[in-house]
Structure formats: structure tokens, C-alpha cells
Design a protein that fits this description.
homotetramer, alpha+beta, 25 strands, globular
């Protein structure tokens, strides 16, 4: 069936995910006044590609109008050299200094994937065109949408980002002195926005600070904003500071200025899962370098759940960081006994059930000579549905492992995330309604241990960013803000 | 430069027009209750392809939601068999009888060509999704847009069709008993709309009747609506009647019902250029068959401007109809001495100026043996910029024509059209500020005659549809309604 | 099923023919010493597009190596500007004057369509690379192929053109003083070859002169060769002469030189079907302008088979030329009552049998107001299978024609062509085993007349090229050379 | 410039390599009698994708004819589900048991990349069609080609694989009792062939055993052959044995049979670089598991070149295996301080020199917190040109590394490979004409050590496959067979 009304389904091939990894919604980038800003954005999007692989887009201003190129697909496929040259020509066509760009990598669940929901989203209204890109998840977008529709608004797409545009337009029309700030005040949930109008970039971060958003400077002194510091690194920009919870920062010809649409929440809620899984290991997130945190998770995991074994095996690629920490702490040899196939991507043709070829075996090769007759510790970052973990454990067993001890560098995931992590439905999580022993049996391993919530918080907390500033709702069910329990997956899926 | 914000410019190749033919905006089709309505729409779009070659789209309802497939390009390239099967499955998935579809071929000027403006346009609002497709040109869309923006509306695209959606939403929100009718009342200019919501098709035609729109029945008895009767013919539907000026017709499970949003204007304004150039010669438009009208134009042209000659040559393909009439009336032999190349389309690589290959010569081959040493009459339907006509006359002269007498089957075009015909700017029209003698000299022919306005009106007028019901503003400058003289090309270009 | 071994089936969409028109194999072009020869070739290929729509290709020499661009599809789709620029840069990179190109449009039956058989075909052998393109059909290629295979040759593709390359290589290896001439001597059947090696173009035409091949000069004085004069016209080249039967002409830095591989056959055999259907009406073929011949066919048809009628209708587009002649001779009004849809090409989705939409109705619209209650004469150029003719006659009848008199401007086709025309199998021809009266009944017309063979020959013959120099085997079964009756369709299909 | 004559350059986008990694030519696979052999081949090609990323192809037999699908690009892009279904339908259409397939991944240098050289290559000759795919490099192909051309052969493409087809055809034509064996005897250099004719697969390996080739069985008992055991693993096949040097193995309805075209050379020459770099770490190659060899290389490297340091960093991904060995032996902590970006592939737009963004920084992120103020050992598998290594070392230095000690797990590469490894020209190798101290200075590190040739041989040699059976010519210049020193890069490039 055709997807719900889509701007251009012609030839768009929407790839299906291969394995059941958790996914986050989107990475954002913005720049003002830097030479060739579209090229900078392009490289930054590469560095943020892990945050969203469904579509990519860049919008540039020529001082009067906004120009966009976006498409479904990976950054490398969306942009050809000519697109960047054109967008950079747009930015350069302003009088004086180069203008700005905003850029976006998007992940969204398949159901609402469409070119029409591609980001950055561009709206036309009284004050001119406005482009917006989003990382996070609003929890009251459906309420706002209903209100707007009842007041006579017509929407083009199903994305919550369009709702935000309408709220801004509405605030402007009713004469709010700072329509953007007023609009941000009305939003609930997790959000990091980058917006572009003809003469400036604006960025905003929710008052809880769920998602990371940082400010940096290129070597030319031009300000840039990105979801993660790794995007600054690739373009040779220096890290300056985080965008504060509740802050709006403006980048324009006058430089960088800041205002608040709200005080930071007394209950800050940085997403701990950024450290556990999402963010690049090379990024500095919420004040700590991710890779160091992950090594510490592995060390703490050994402290909490030691086991007699011969070797430590990382589950590539995500388990490698904590596995090195675990190996170091345990003193056991660290060995790469599971080899990932880099070429089995989203578009490969999956084996059918009746074939004797398993998708997991295509994705990972176990080296029998390494695991045979050994007591092995496998370290991974998290378990979601458990089905692929089970298949991987089977492969290790078949390759001759004598004992398999699985160590997971975070607690069991048992609760929905309403703030931007795309977990499957709660009832599909392997840990829902199961004890660790039951999960162990189901995964077919000799022992299983998760890192404790306390252990996790000890690793991420420090003097500057204490542990109580983290959101751990997916582990604990303790939500930093009240959420409507009727918020269904479909509603969540409209966010980015 | 990238086109103005576009949903998906990835790989879209926007072809440039080869020659300076006038162009119209769009063809529409709708059906309710017919089996396989998407296939019907597909064939109907083929028959209406001459009304728009830029993009094509079909929207179907499954009784709950709307599903669309649209893309840039010709109908044959936009739709693969699977798209039609999917859309027909959508329509068939309703309980009971099959649902409906609306469909659209679009032409628009290059500047605002983009997937985001592709039609049918789909909006989401309080009462559910609504799809809309348009043929015509609104003269107050920019005013309505400004009003809506000032009231807090945010727009996604630059098309006037989106404005119409917002006006409908606004009328619904303010409690209008018939929001569609109220919205239509607020529109000025030329329009034929087909709209699809979950449970019905609605069609509306402006009170002046500028553009054609007809109602027919398939052999299954299902009602269909199309811009021209030729679309009924190809799907084996019978012609029933025109949609009346000021009428809204609803097609749904209860059949066909009608209401008025306005009385027909006392000054009806059928576009005479439909007869002269746009409509298919095989269509019945405003009560007359186009081909017969065109033959009559040729006969009248002979009556008005006879000339001593050896042969009559049609300018293919558009001049053929009037040339046969001219030849018959004159008694001169009708000979095909100019051969069009069917393969030189919009995408071919045009010769540069320094090359000795002319684009006209690629498009038309003159047969020297036919024209050499002859006194020839060339009959064409119209002259716009004059540049290609001049090149064609040069070719005939080089091929040895002794005398060239050019006869044009309509008056000189000297005024802008605000109602859906995409002429170039007035100052680019060859007839602007020039006498016929000056044009003759410029085109390099031995004699030139245009059909008189009176002669044209005598041909199109009859007892049922008298000549005073036609709009001839492009020839006479006599506009049926007041138009803001500041309406610039850019404004016009946003319509369809 | 995948096509027989194909070089690149990735994404190639081989369109299916819509209607049962006869087809010929290919058009060729060559140039030496002209500036920008690839662009010239590109425009020439447009003019020759009617001779082959399956693939197109150009090969250029840089003085050392050959460079090719070719692909499946129409000329406009195969070549982008960059391809022409690159090939012209290749030709310009020679010292001194620009080098040469050869070019080819190919039609071939679907079974063996593949990129591997794309032309020009390039072979590597002892003397260097050699490119070759072909128009015609060899009748002994299978014999030569078998001999070569038995001698140890390995072939890459299934095309006969590759066989020719091997024969040339073989003649060179055995020390023939003029390997090309020796190879041409060994070939039987119809052929026009253009060949390109690093330093020259060579062209050869079979000794019977089946297919047209002409020599011309660009305005720069550079020699060019093309299948039809219409290709000379579009590039502004002047016609010089035909390539003689049995002649090899060389174009190189020394100009044009000629030699013979054989004396012209005493039984010349120009294909009369070029005049009847294939060649462009604007071309001069075998010494006569095609359009004039076709007008004469129509006049002669009236002389041979007059009938009382009200109007003459051409069957567009191919019947138009003879219909004007018929109308002139008869004095009946010539009226365009059948309107072709220019957009229904090879790739459109054909209606299934159960649909009430016929492919013919999509392709042609009958104007009922013109044919209703009339005695009409329909003039067409030929009838092949008869199925679409029958459908067209049905449409006319349904539109209200009182009497339908079908006049065909050539005799009934009843015999296979082994010399380059791709008729369907003999048993699929409507005229096979049927009298004219039986065909009339089958087509459902009131009267049917074919032009007589004598009448046809009277029209094409003249003092310079008498009628007995034409091959009329498809009508008469009188083959100019002995052909192996076991030559099956599959064998023929391998030719071009 | 267009590539040298190419079958289909239409739309083919030939990606450029990003970094200067050595590359090998190709991976092969064959199967006979297994259900759905094309799907097996597809999964096997995934597992062998590291051996060639330029094009992929599968040929299947239906018992009579061969059917191929191949295209430029990665396996995932070349094959859609329908291709596999069609090829499997071909194999299933034989009477009785399913037929066979051969398959190929190809790497070739850019100059001769073209669809025409795509593999498997299919030739037509007297005995029927024969498909062939190749891994290796012939050293006398140019000699054989010249002989064949002088004997009258014409070639289609520039690949040596076509030469092999001709040699087989020639041996057959001259009445050789076993033409395949006779042809193999005439070949010099490194080769592993898989061949498919209508009723059997044949595979052959050169007498020196340069490239790996193994025989296995699917769980259905069907024989399969692949370049590496990792391809057996993914399809659940069990390893049986290596194909012997000088052996031809036939797979057909009678099972597996073997013959010899030559005795194994007394000087066997397994490519040691397969262990160092090429082969999958999960494969068993020349009797040893690659990953275990690589760990041992790292341990031996520590033994040979210890250094005082704080941490060991692997150069991802290729240095990871030896780095774990080095870390284990040294006792230093193993830390992942360099993070590869998985999304920066061959098609990304590389930064220009004037941009301040380096391609290396896009590909690798250094984690400053890990390397700052540390004495680090970086372990990598090899250094080729040295340019990217230098850039990586710069990045580490800028991130604050106090001392950088580079350890390379093989000796300096200083000599050309004529046997299938695509090193750059000798003069472009950093080690050519430089001492280790000079290289150290050039790379900007505090110390540099290569593994010694003796150390390398100690690691790879064992009782079953002693060290003297390896070819180490790229390190030592000691070529196992005489090679013509005039063999230039261009000649080598034609191999696969």
C-alpha cells in the first residue's frame, strides 16, 4: 500500500531495519557566517549519521529566501557535489558575510516515513519563510495539533515539527512579543530545535535538557551548533559550551546572543541512554566523554558481577567500549572472536525462515578457534527484544563455547521512552515481566548480569553533573514529568 | 541554484521547454464508485496529458485515510503498474462499493516547480484529511494568503492550492454551515477544483466558467468528472453535462448531487484559447467540438485574407486543423511539407548558438521538393514570441519557397492572461506594440494575416453558447473581471 | 527470467512495443574531421531515431584509443551533455584536425535485447581496436559463426556484428591484403556498416544496395555518412551521393577515398518498404524524396480503386502522406478525424482484457462529429497483423461512420523479409493465406483495396533508378538472392 | 573522459577509493545441486564482499543456456529479490536436481572498470556457452592475447578472463582431449577459476596455490566452492578441503570429481598478505585461522620491538587483531581511542585541500581524553603509501599524545605484486628507498617498528604448511617465478 500521503514516493526505497536495535530520532546542526556552510553541514551530518539514517537535509538562506535540498537516504546518497555547491552559492549570495544553514539527519519509524516529513521542514508565514529541524520528542504535540485544527489550521504532513511551526505562527499572530519563546514555552517533552529564517539561526533546548546540544566555533570564529561534539571535531571547530536547558541562542551577523524561554527545570533529565548506546564514543555528552563512561561501565560491571572465565569477548561494535573496561578490570584476555560483516546493511535481502541461512550469521561470524572449549564472557551494551541476542548466543554455543556468561552494561529496559528513543512496544521488550533468571534461561546463557541502576548512575554522575540530573525512566519507570499513559506508539512515531 | 524549498529535489530533472508555446495549467479527473478507479484515472490522465506535463498524481480513499502517489514527470513515468494496483486496492478496501479517486496533471512555470507543490495537494485538518487538485488561476490568492498568515497560519508550500485548503479549514473553524461553499465564494478568478475526502468527491467550478469541466458516467454507471471529454472517451464513459459555473457537485455513495455556491456570473467567460490551441481537437468544449471549430477558423481565415498561392502547408501539429479548413475553402492543394521530429522532446540537448545546428531544424524538417519555387500559404494556430516562427519561415525560405504567406487562425495576442494560460510577459509577445505589417517584416514573410476577433467569435459562438460568453482578453484587453494590474508573473506562477 | 547473458541488466527497462508496427533494424552515422563530431552525431541520431529506438551509442577516437558511450533507450535519454562534451574532447585530443566518430540507433527484437549487444560494437584485435555499427541483416552470419567457432573462436555476445569483427580479424590473420574488403566479400545479405579505428572511418554497403547510405559534407567541408539524408539536413550538411553497392569508402585525414570489394550486383535490390513506411518522409532515398513518392502512392491508389465517399481520413501519422495524395486525386475533403495521443508511448501500462479501456482508444481518438453518418475513406500505409487495424475500424464504426472504405498504399505483405525489416512471422500476417475479400471481412470494412505491385513500382521507378532495382520480396515472394528457407526468426533477430 | 569502450556506462557511478588501502582482485563462489543456489551465492558474496566491491554477478544454468545478472556496485545494490528468484527459477528449471551457479565479486583498478569487464564473463563457442570468473592475476595473459590476436582472434573487452576463454576455445578447436586442462597448463601466474557450462561447474587453481580456494558441502550435501571459508560459514556449509594447487575439480550431477592439469609446484607460493590483511579474520586460510595468526603477529611484534608506554591503541578496523595480541603480550591497557566513522564510504564528497576538513578526520575520530599526555603504542597491519598513516599520526599528536610508537604487524612493503594484490606503483610505496628511521621521521612518530620477515614467517608457518610455502615477494623481492620486469601496471590492471 502506498504510504500515507507522501510528497514524492517516486522511486523512494525505504529500507527496513535488519536487527532490533534501539534507535533515536535525529541529529541537528546549524552554522552562521562560516565560509561554505553547506559543506560544513555535510561533514557534520556524516559525523551525526549514527543518530538517523532515514533522510538528510540542509537549508541555506540567501538573505531573502530559503533553499533546501533533502532526500530519503544516507548523507552520502542524498548530497552530490553540485548540491553543496549550489547551497554554498546561496549562502554566499548575501551581501557581506556568508549566511547560515541548518541541517538534519532523521530517523523515524517506517509507518510515517515519507519525503513530506523530511526535515528541515520549511514553512511560509507572515514574517517570511522559516525552516526548522528537530531532535527529540514532544509529549503534547497531539494536544496542540487538535487545538490548532479546531482553530482552523490545515496541516500538510503528519510530523510534530509542522505543529511547532504553526504554534510559532500563532504566537506571532496573537502579538506575542517573542513568538519563538512563547511557542517553546507551550511545548512539553524533549526537544532540541535549530531554526533558520532569512537573517538568523535560532536554537532552543527544552528546560529538562533531555537531548544534547552544543555550541562551538569554527577556526574562522563562526558559531556552530550540533547535537554532539563529534560534529564539531570533524569540521575542526572548538567546543564552547552546551546550550542550556530552557535557553534560546541566536546566531546572526551580530554574533551569538542568548535568552531564556524558561528557567531550567529543577528536575533536569539528561538521557542516560546517550551514554549507554546512542552517542558516538568520541563525543563529549552532558560533560563527560562517552567512551570513558563506557569503559567505566564495563569495569563496574566486573565489580558487580564477576565470573570465572577464560576470555572476554566484545559484542561488536557497540559492546567493545565496555568490554575493554571489563577485560581490564577482570584481567582476562580480551579477544575479538565475533567478526561483524560491514556490508550487510539495511537493504540486503534477508533469508526467509525456510532457508538455513540466518540473518545473524550473515551479520556476525564467530571464530570457532577462539571460543571452542572456553568459558567466555560476552559484554554487550543493552538487550532490547532479545531475539538477536539469543541468536548470537546460539552461534557462540554452536561454535563450541563451554560456558557463556553474558554481561550487559546497563540495567534491564522495561519502560517506554516518551522523549526520543525509539524502543519497541514495552510488551516486546525481553525484560518486561521477566526476572533476570528468566531472561537468562530465555537467552540460553550460563549466567547473565545487568549493571545495576546505582552502578550506572555512579559511572555517569560527577561533581559537575550529578547523577540525579539524568533521566533513567526506561530502566526505573520513574518519569521526570507526568506523561499521558494513553500516548501510543503512533503518536510518538510522529516526532523526531 | 536549488529550487525554492522543495520536498524532494533528489534526482528530479526538471525539463526545460524547447519552444515558446503557450501553456496552460493542469488537467483534473475524479471518479466515485467505479471499479479500479486508479486505472481509470491513469488512462484519463494520459488523455489530459496535453494540459500539463510537469507532474502527475492520484489520491485514493480507503474510507478512512487518503493515499497518494505523485511525482514529477509524465504520466507514463510517474506510475508503474504496482502504484495503480496499490491505489486500486486502497479504493477497494472500503466496505461495499469501491471508493473514489482524484487525479491531476500539472504544468507550472519552472521557478516554482517542486515536488512540494505537486498535486493533488493533501491537507490534514480537524475534519480529517482533504485532497485537492486545481485547474485555473486565482486572482486573489495572494490577498487571502496574507490574511491567513496575519491570522497565524503557516504554509508549507508556495502553491495557491494550499491557500484554498486553509480557507476551507478556516471557514469550518468559524462554523460556516457549508465550509466548502463559503470558501469557494471567497475565491476570485478561474478555477476548477476536484476534492477528495474519506467518503466523497466534490468538484467546483468558478462562477465565470473559464475552464472546462464535464460530468460523465462509466459503463458501470459510476460518475466521473474531467477537464475535457477526451478523458471520458478513452475510458469508455459517456458525456452527461458540463459542471455549471458556480456549482458544486458531490459524488458519493448516494450518487451525484448538486448545489450552488454562487449564481453563474451574468458575464460568463469561457476561455476562447481552449478552442484555438489548448484543448484536444477530439474534445467537446463549451458545447462545441474543438476540431470542427478549428476547421471553421481556417475557412474563415481564407474568407478574410485570401491570397494567390500554389499550395497550403500546415504547421504541424497545431496548425493542421485550421490548415485543412483553409485548404478546402481555397481549393489549393494541402501538402505536408514540414515534417515534425517526434523524438525531440523537452530533455534533448539544445544546440548552442555557435553550432550551426538549429533547434528548429531538429524539430522540423522542410521538404525542399515540395516548397521549392512555390507560392506557399503556411497556416498556424497562433504566434507568441515570434522567435520560432521566424526560424521556421527562414527554413522555408532556404528550402526555396518563392512566396510565403503566413495565416494565423486567431487575432494577435497582446494582453496578459490572469486566468490560467501561461503566456510569457506581455513585452515578450511579438504583437505587443507592433502593427501586423511590422510583425510581417519581422517574421520575414511576404504576407501575414491574423483571423479577426469578430471572425473568431463568429466561429465559436452559436445559439446555445453565444459569442459573448467567451473571454477574449488576451486579444482584446477587455477583462471580464477587474484585475489588480500589479499582479505580477510571480504571483500568477503560483497557481495551477 | 533474466535475459540471456547480458552485460548489464541492472535497471534496464526494456519497453514493450504497443502496437504491431513493422520495424527496421537501425540507423548509422559517421563523421571525420568535423569540429564537435559527437554533437553532430547526437543530432543526426535524433533525425534517425525512427530507425531504432532500443539503444543508441557513439564511439570516438582520440587517435590512439576508442571511447564509447552507449546505453539502452532513446537518444535523448542515453546522452547527457557531459557525455557529448567528453566524446568531443576525445576527438579533439588528436593532434591536428579533429578525429572521427561513428554512431548508431538500434532496434532489435526483445528476445535478444541487451546491453551486451549494444552498438557500436567494439573489438580488440591485433591491429588495435575497431568499432563497428550495422544496419541490415546478414543471411549467412550463422554459417560464418559456426565456422569461426569450429576454428577456436569464442564469442561474447549473440549479435551478428561480432561475427563480422571476427571475420575481419581472421582475414587479417591469414594475411589478406585488404582484410575489410575480404571480409565484406564473405558476407551475404543486406548491410551498411560504419567502422571506426584509431585513424579512420570506413563504410561499406552490400552489393545489392538493400539499405540506404549516403555521403555528405558539413559546412566545414568534413565528410559525413548517414543512413538517410534527413540526418544530413539537421546538421546543415549537403548531400553528395549515395555509397555505391559493393563500395567501401574511407574517411580520414586525407579526405574521402573509395574502393570496391565487389561489383554491384546485376540484380540491385533497394528495399521498397523504405519508401512505403520506414524512411522519414523528408529523406531522399534511392534517388527520390519519400514524401513525394508517398503522395503519388495515394494518387495511384485512387486511380486503381476509386470509391464513392464523403471524406478522406488519414490514419495518423503514417497514412497522412498517401492520404493527401488520395484526397487530391479524388477531390474529396481531407479531414483529420482521428487524433493521435502523442504521450502513449512504449512504456505506458496497457489495459488488461477485462478492462473496458482499449489500448487503441488510448492511442487514437476518433472525432464522432466528423465521421458520423459519413461514407469515409481511410488511407493507411500498410497492414501487418491486422489486429490494431481492426480495432481502429471498430472505433470508426462506433463513432457512427456509415461506410468505411479502407485503402492501403502498398500490396498485401505475405512473405518474410531476410534483409532487415522486422515483420512478425509470416503466419501472423493478416494477408497470409487470405484473399483481399477475406481480409476485408476480417477487418470489418465495407471495401478494402491495396495498391497493386505494379502501381507501387510505377510510383518508385524512374529513369535513374528503374523499378526493377527494387526488392519487393515481402509482397511478391520473389527474393533477389537465394535464402535458406530454414532461417528462422531467432536467427534473423540476431542481426541489426 | 568516457572510460575505454564500455558496454553500458549509462548511469554507472564508479566510486573512487577514499584511502590508500591495498586491494585484492575478487572473490569467487560456485555451487552445484543445491536448492536455491542463487540465494546461496548471494549470501556467500556478502561474506566475500571484502575481496571486491566494484561489481558483482551470478550466472545460473537451466541445463541448456546460461543466464546472468551482474552490475557495478556492492552485492546489496546489484541484486534485488526478483533477480535471485529469477536465477533460482533458472536453476530449478532443469530436469531432476537443481543446476548450478557461479558468482563473483570484483575489484579492479579504475582505469578499466566497466560493465564490459564485469564478471562472470560469458563466452559463446562451438561447445556452447561457458561462463568464467577469476580471482588472481595472470602473468602471461598479454603474451597469450598477442598470440591469439595474431591468429585472428577478436576480443570484446580488455579483461584477461576473456583471454582464458579464447585459450580454452582454441584448445578445443585444435582437438585437445581435455581443453580446460590444456588451457590451464598454458597459464602462468596466480589464478582461481570457477567455470559454468550447461551441465557442470569446474574449478581450477594454479600450481603454486597463490590464492585460497576451498571446497565445502551444504547441509543438503551439495558441493560448493568459495575463495574463503567465511562464505561456507554464512550459508551453513561445512569445510571439506582446499582445492589443490594444479587441480581441476568438477561439480555435476555425478557429484565431485578431481583431476590434475599439473603437479603442484615444488615451490608453493601462498600469499602471506592474505593473513596479514586481506582475508576475513574469521576465515581459515592455507590451514590456519586468520584471526589467530594476526593475534600472534601482534605478540611477536611486542617481542621484537618492545617499548615503554601507557596504552595500546588499535588502528581500526584492520589493526585490532594484532593490537589485542600486542596488548596482551605487553601487559599495557588496550584502549579504543580511535573511532571509525562507518558511514564515510567510497562515495562521499572528499574535502578539497583548501578546506580545513581532512578526509582522515572524517574517517576517524581520536578521543583526546584517552591519548592526552600518554605514551601510546599504535598497532596497524601495514603501511602502503604512508600518506594517510601520517595524517592519522598528526591527529593523535594534536589530540595531545605525549609519545607515539607505531608498530606494524608485517615487514615494509617494497616490491610489486604480480599475483593479485593491487598495490600502488613501487615508487609510491613509502618504504621504497627509505630506511625505517627515514620512514619514522616522515610519519612523525617517536618510534617505528615493523615486524621482521622472519617473525612473520614464524607466525604463519606450522607443521602442515611450513613457512617456505608462502610467497613474501612484496617484502623480500624474492619472486617464486620469473616475471617479466616490463610488466607494467596497465597490464596487471587487466587481471582480476
Amino acid at each position: 500500500m502506498p504510504s500515507q500521503p507522501s510528497g514524492n514516493s517516486g522511486g523512494t526505497d525505504i529500507p527496513m531495519p535488519v536487527l532490533d536495535e534501539p534507535r533515536e530520532h535525529c541529529g541537528v546542526f546549524a552554522a552562521w557566517g562560516a565560509p561554505n556552510p553547506a559543506r560544513l553541514a555535510y561533514y557534520a551530518l556524516f559525523a551525526l549519521q549514527h543518530r538517523g539514517q532515514e533522510s538528510a537535509g540542509i537549508v541555506a538562506t540567501d538573505g531573502e529566501r530559503l533553499h533546501r535540498h533533502s532526500d530519503m537516504g544516507l548523507v552520502a546518497n542524498v548530497f552530490a557535489n553540485e548540491h553543496l555547491e549550489e547551497l554554498d552559492a546561496v549562502a554566499a549570495s548575501r551581501d557581506g558575510t556568508p549566511g547560515g544553514v541548518i541541517a538534519h539527519n532523521r530517523y523515524s519509524t517506517t509507518g510515517v516515513s515519507s519525503a513530506e516529513n523530511a526535515q528541515p521542514f520549511v514553512g511560509q508565514f507572515a514574517a517570511g519563510a522559516l525552516a526548522i529541524a528537530h531532535n527529540g520528542n514532544l509529549t503534547n504535540a497531539h494536544v496542540l495539533r487538535r487545538e490548532l485544527e479546531e482553530a482552523g489550521a490545515a496541516f500538510h504532513a503528519t510530523s510534530d515539527t509542522e505543529v511547532v511551526l504553526h504554534v510559532i505562527a500563532h504566537e506571532a499572530a496573537r502579538g506575542a512579543p517573542d513568538p519563538l519563546a512563547s511557542a517553546m514555552e507551550r511545548l512539553e517533552g524533549a526537544f532540541c530545535f535549530v531554526l533558520l529564517s532569512r537573517d538568523r539561526v535560532e536554537v532552543a533546548r527544552d528546560r529538562h535538557g533531555w537531548r544534547p546540544l552544543v555550541l562551538g566555533r569554527t577556526s574562522d570564529g563562526a558559531p556552530v551548533v550540533a547535537s554532539e561534539t563529534v560534529a564539531l571535531d570533524v569540521i575542526g571547530a572548538t567546543y564552547e559550551r552546551e546550550i542550556e536547558p530552557g535557553e534560546i541562542v541566536t546566531l546572526n551577523d551580530d554574533g551569538v546572543s542568548s535568552r531564556r524561554f524558561a528557567e531550567p527545570s529543577p528536575r533536569l533529565a539528561h538521557c542516560v541512554f546517550e551514554h549507554v548506546y546512542f552517542a558516538s564514543p568520541a563525543s563529549r555528552v552532558f560533560g563527560s566523554t562517552v567512551q570513558l563512561i563506557r569503559e567505566k561501565l564495563g569495569e563496574t560491571l566486573w565489580d558487580e558481577a564477576p565470573v570465572a572465565a577464560d576470555i572476554v569477548l566484545p559484542m561488536p561494535d557497540s559492546g567493545r567500549s565496555s568490554a575493554t573496561g571489563f577485560a581490564r578490570a577482570s584481567g582476562y584476555p580480551y579477544r575479538e572472536g565475533i567478526i561483524p560483516n560491514r556490508y550487510v546493511g539495511r537493504t540486503f535481502i534477508k533469508p526467509t525462515d525456510e532457508e538455513r541461512v540466518s540473518a545473524v550469521r550473515l551479520k556476525l561470524n564467530v571464530i570457532a578457534e577462539i571460543v571452542r572449549d572456553k568459558r567466555i564472557v560476552v559484554v554487550d551494551d543493552s538487550v532490547v527484544r532479545g531475539t538477536t541476542t539469543r541468536a548470537k548466543m546460539d552461534q557462540l554455543r554452536k561454535a563450541g563455547a563451554k560456558e557463556i556468561h553474558l554481561r550487559i552494561s546497563c540495567p534491564p529496559i522495561r519502560h517506554a521512552c516518551y522523549f526520543g528513543v525509539d524502543f519497541p512496544d514495552v510488551q516486546q521488550l525481553v525484560a518486561t515481566g521477566r526476572t533476570t533468571e528468566q531472561i537468562r534461561a530465555l537467552l540460553g546463557v550460563d549466567s547473565l548480569a545487568y549493571l545495576s541502576l546505582d552502578g550506572l548512575l555512579r559511572c555517569v554522575g560527577n561533581a559537575d553533573v550529578p547523577a540525579d540530573r539524568y533521566c533513567t525512566a526506561c530502566y526505573s519507570g520513574d518519569y521526570p514529568i507526568a506523561v499521558d499513559p494513553s500516548l501510543r506508539k503512533e503518536v510518538l512515531a510522529k516526532n523526531c
